[in-house]
Structures are given as C-alpha cells and as structure tokens.
Design goal:
The complex is a heterodimer. By secondary structure, chain A is of the alpha/beta class. Helix content of chain A is 45%, strand content 16%. In chain A, helix 3 crosses helix 11. Chain A is built from 14 helices and nine strands. Chain B has a single domain, classed as 2-enoyl-CoA Hydratase, Chain A, domain 1. Chain B is 38% helix and 19% strand. The chains are: A alpha/beta, B alpha/beta. Strand 9 of chain A pairs antiparallel with strand 5 of chain B, so a sheet runs across the interface.
Chain lengths: 333, 277
C-alpha cells in the first residue's frame, strides 16, 4: 500500500527529465489506440529507467538530503503499517503528555515480537503541524525510553526508525529539559539488556536522531542522511548564509550520506532502496528494511544480555580518532 | 597514559598573562585592577558577573595548589573528514592551538579539591568554542574510566557551544560515547558532579553535562539545548526574559544548585562528603 496522500506529482529539479518522460509515457498510454505505440512506450521506459538509475546512482550529498525529505517518502508509520502485523501503539510518557512526533508500540515483524519506536513526520498539513514535522519534544524521548525499558523487562528486541530534522527547538521543550531527555536516552540505551536495532530511514538530524539511535546495529537507508547538523544549519554558521550553493558545499563537507557514514564506521550497514528512491516503491523499500531487521534480530537474539551490552558499549566507545602531538601528523590522503 | 605535571604545563600559560593591567568587566563596564579580578576568580567585584575562564584557569581555581596531574595532554584532533569550509579544519585547529595554548578543547586529570582526590575535567571555550570533537570525547571517556578504575569522584566543568561541526558524525557519536561511559560509572556507583558554566549548550548539554548525579551551575550562565536564535526563528516570537539562564534551568528542575564561583570548591567538597566518596 503506498503511503497516504501518495501522488507522483512532486518534482525534484534534478529528476525533471525523468518526470518529463513519465508524462510522455502517460500521454501515449492513455490514448485509445495505445497498442500502436507499444514499441515507442517500451523504448521510452527503458530510457527512463536508465536515466533514473544514473541519477540515483550518483546523487550529490545535497540531492540526497532533498530525496530524504521527499514528501512522498515513506515515514515510520508507513513502514510500520507495511512491515508489521498487529501494531499495538503505546502512548504517553506518564509524566507530561504524549508526543505525536514519536510513535511507540508492540508489533510483529515476520514472526518476531518487537518494540517499535519511530519518529513521525505526518503526511497531511494538519498532521505535519501536530507532529512538529518530526521534531520531538522531551516527552517524546521520555516516552521512547519508557517503552524501551518495558521491552527490556519482557526481553523484547527494540527496533527504532529514525527520521527527524532534529529535536524541537522551542520554549516548552527547553523548559521541560530537551537536553536532559536526550542525554538520558543515550546513557540508558547504551545499557539496555535487550537487542536494539536502529535504522535512519530519512533524516538523521543530530541529537534528535541519536536520542533513539544507540543500537547494537545501526543502518541507513540508501538515500537517508545522518549528521551532527543539517547542511543549512552548518552553512548558516560556517558560511554565514544558507543558500543552494553553500548548502551543497556544506552537505558534502559534513559527510552525511549513507556511504560516507559507512566508510567512517559510524553506521554498520546500508539498506538498498528500490530504483529511484523509496518513494517510488514504498513496498519494495519496506521489504528490504524488514529483511535487514530480521537478519539482525536473528543474530542478536543468540547473544546473552551481557554480551549485547558489552559489544554495544565497545562499538560506541571506539568511535573517534585522535592523534598524539608527539607523533608525526598522518599523511594527507 | 601520557602525563605531565601541572607546573610544566602551566609555564606557557603564565608567560602569556600580562600582569598589572586594568581590565574592564564585560558586563557592567567597571574598570577593575587585573590582580583584583584574578583574586576574585574572574568574578566582577562590582556586578558579580562570572567571566568565562580558560580550562587552565578553571583548574587552578578549583584544585589545591600543585595537586593537579594532567592526562593525555598530547591528544589533538586528527581531522578525520578532511573538513573544509571557508577555512580548513586543520588551520582552525592550528589557530585555536596558538590562541589557547592547548591541544584541544578540554583538560583532564586528577587533583585534590579541598583535600579530596577527584578526577577533574574542564572545557576551554577559547578552543573552537569549547566544542566537542573526538579528542574532547576521548579525553572525557578516559577520565571517566580512570574514575571507575580508581573509585574516584568525577567533576566535569562544561563550557561549550556543543558538538564540533567539523567532525560531523564523529562529533555526534562522542555524545553517545561519553554517555555510555558515564552509564558504566553509574553502574559502578560513582559520583559525577557536573558543573555548568557559561555557556553550556547543544550536544554537550544533551549528553554528559546533563547526566550529573549532582548538577551545579554558575549564576546567570547560558544553559540550553538549542541556541536562543534558533528558537526565536522557530517560534517567531520573543523569548521570555531570563530564558535559558541557570536560574531558569534550575526553576525548570534540571539543575540542583546555583553556586557562586567562590563557593564552588567547598560545594564540591561537601557533596563528595555527603556521597561518602
């Protein structure tokens, strides 16, 4: 099932050529005597597919960010609907409220019972506003932690789906301790005695992403981004202005693509997306996601809790290259 | 672990400090004799403004004389991404080194505070805004591990704009790393006193700084997650007065005590005694 509101009309300028061919194909297809144009349609399709493969095989980092934000890209709720049977949502942090920007609940993926945690961005305008475009408040992070502790109690593995521009910057979120909520999650997730599998499915915006991202295995979908700051935020600070040009340079400098993050050992795997991105075939994307998650859970479920916690600790403990001043500087690469 | 005595490390810094100057309070503009300001721990005698101090000065103000032994002073950033903005990250590091006389944004070590042995870390705002990259993360992790191994209390004085952009994902992961090590320290029953100085924001607040067993803050420091400008742009209205000050954060319930700089040593000692560490 495509995500609610799915419509192929949204255009990214770097794929306008593909959409132009799509329109030509549609025009031919809708003719009464379309059978006459079968050969032409076939040839157009093949040109289109080659073009799409070429564009998506070589997206610039900034283009990747644009794809990750595509309004038709499946969100956590879409993946949960496509992957899960019997999703049983659990609301509220028991202290302040229920943040719609993070969904939590029991669910079955394949034959495995899990606790699902995911950022929600919303689809329709009203929904997006309600979810603060995927920017969670402290009560969202506290809800996530509460449900993760619940999962730990019953030895259920945890699956988190990360998709946020960042944690919500506002008066209420500061007042209710945004920083403390994220910090607490980082510490508690690092010692959960149950498997934790995390996937950046769209945007991995800084602490807001990491706040549900400390896992035994962390993956990124092929066209997701993950970084300490958004390219616009970085450009605004370092180049004093965020525009198309500086965003492009900042996105590259930040090494935010799945390939970059894998190369630097900051994530463990890249989950391939269907040709032309997850938004073109949400079901195929969900199938890939599900299969990767199940593979990880199969491996992790064999480990003792002590081993899980130790390995997770070591994984994050080892990140961060430093050099000694007494040693010669590493050669330029 | 490479170690250097505090006196050795201090020589360069002392040379850099001009003596006998009149300085102006950055808050009220009062002219204060340099020695007077130093004696009042860089707190303005007129308006009580707590000036930012370097990590080196901070440690000197906190520890008993000649008791500090530094860890890992040699560690410096490796520029894992070859980051270039309008300047190269390497040139920014070099400039920060010259400006601060330090190899990166925090100093760590062991020392005595009012006769109690502690592992102490202080961040240095003069080094790229005290930002946390791999070196800061690694030094804090090692310092925490030292506290675990030797069953010592841990004191970290934060003074930082947050995670260091030029190391991108590596910086982000230092948040997870420092928090995970503090999780182990917590499991081991350790006492972590987090001291928040002006400013403590971003990825530093959202990781180790907010994980103190006891959290102390200096008066009127800026403490928060998002910067005030970002928040103003998001909500498009004026921020309440006193927003994101120590006092605001304490009233919101996220800081235990606001402590004047002259009382910091005795407060730390007192908490260590209550915790029986």
């Amino acid at each position: 099932m495509p995500p609610a509101g799915y419509s192929p009309n949204y255009e990214l300028e770097f794929e306008s050529a593909v959409q132009e061919i799509d329109r030509q194909i549609d025009a031919l297809d809708s003719k009464d005597d379309s059978a006459r144009f079968e050969a032409e349609i076939q040839s157009l399709r093949s040109t289109r597919n080659d073009l799409l493969r070429k564009i998506y095989g070589d997206l610039s980092p900034w283009q990747t960010v644009r794809v990750a934000r595509h309004p038709l890209r499946p969100h956590s709720d879409d993946y949960i609907r496509m992957m899960c049977r019997d999703y049983c949502e659990l609301h509220g942090d028991r202290h302040f409220g229920d943040d719609p920007a993070i969904t939590c609940g029991f669910g079955r993926i394949g034959s495995r019972k899990v606790m699902l945690i995911g950022h929600c961005k919303g689809h329709e305008t009203a929904d997006k506003i309600r979810c603060h475009f995927g920017c969670a408040h402290p009560e969202g992070y506290r809800k996530a932690l509460l449900k993760m502790k619940l999962a730990e109690k019953y030895r259920l593995p945890i699956v988190t789906l990360i998709d946020t521009p960042g944690a919500y910057p506002g008066v209420g979120s500061e007042q209710r301790g945004q920083a403390e909520a994220i910090a607490r999650n980082l510490m508690e997730m690092s010692r959960l005695r149950t498997p934790v599998v995390c996937v950046v499915i769209g945007e991995g915006g800084s602490g807001g992403a990491l706040g549900i991202g400390v896992g035994d295995r962390v993956a990124m979908l092929e066209h997701a981004w993950y970084s300490v700051i958004s390219p616009e935020g970085c450009a605004a600070i370092l180049w004093k202005e965020a525009n198309e040009e500086t965003n492009t340079i900042a996105a590259r400098a930040l090494n935010l693509t799945a390939k970059d993050n894998l190369k630097h050992g900051l994530v463990d795997a890249i989950i391939p997306e269907p040709e032309g991105g997850a938004h073109r075939n949400p079901e195929a994307a969900a199938a890939q996601l599900q299969s990767w998650i199940l593979d990880q859970l199969a491996e992790l479920s064999r480990l003792q809790p002590e081993t899980l916690v130790r390995q997770r600790f070591e994984k994050f403990r080892s990140i961060g290259p430093v050099v000694s001043m007494e040693m010669p500087a590493p050669a330029e690469t | 672990m490479a170690k250097q005595t505090w006196e050795q490390a201090d020589i360069a810094a002392k040379k850099a400090v001009p003596e006998g100057l009149w300085v102006q309070c950055l808050k009220c503009g009062a002219t204060v004799f340099g020695k007077t300001l130093e004696a009042s721990l860089d707190v303005c005698p007129k308006c009580d403004h707590h000036h930012r101090v370097t990590a080196r000065v901070r440690i000197r103000q906190l520890v008993d004389p000649e008791s500090f032994e530094q860890f890992n002073a040699d560690l410096t950033a490796s520029d894992p991404l070859g980051f270039v903005d309008v300047k190269t990250y390497r040139s920014r590091i070099e400039a920060a080194r010259l400006k601060s006389g330090e190899n990166d944004g925090c100093l760590t070590g062991v020392g005595f505070v009012k006769g109690r042995k502690v592992v102490l870390a202080a961040m240095d705002f003069t080094f790229l805004g005290g930002s946390m990259g791999s070196v800061v993360g690694e030094k804090l992790a090692r310092a925490t591990e030292h506290a675990i191994d030797h069953d010592l209390p841990l004191v970290i004085v934060s003074c930082s704009g947050g995670a260091r952009m030029q190391e991108s994902g590596y910086s982000l992961m230092q948040m997870a790393k420092t928090s995970a090590v503090l999780g182990r320290f917590d499991d081991a029953g350790g006492l972590f006193i987090s001291v928040l100085a002006d400013p403590t924001t971003g990825g530093v607040t959202a990781s180790f700084a907010m994980l103190g067993d006891v959290i102390l803050a200096e008066p009127r420091a800026l403490i928060g997650f998002a910067g005030p400008r970002v928040i103003r742009n998001t909500i498009r209205q004026d921020l309440p007065s006193g927003f994101q000050t120590s006092e605001f954060v304490k009233n919101s319930g996220f800081v235990d005590r606001i402590v004047h700089r002259r009382d910091l040593r005795s407060e730390i000692g007192r908490i260590i005694d209550y915790a029986g560490k």
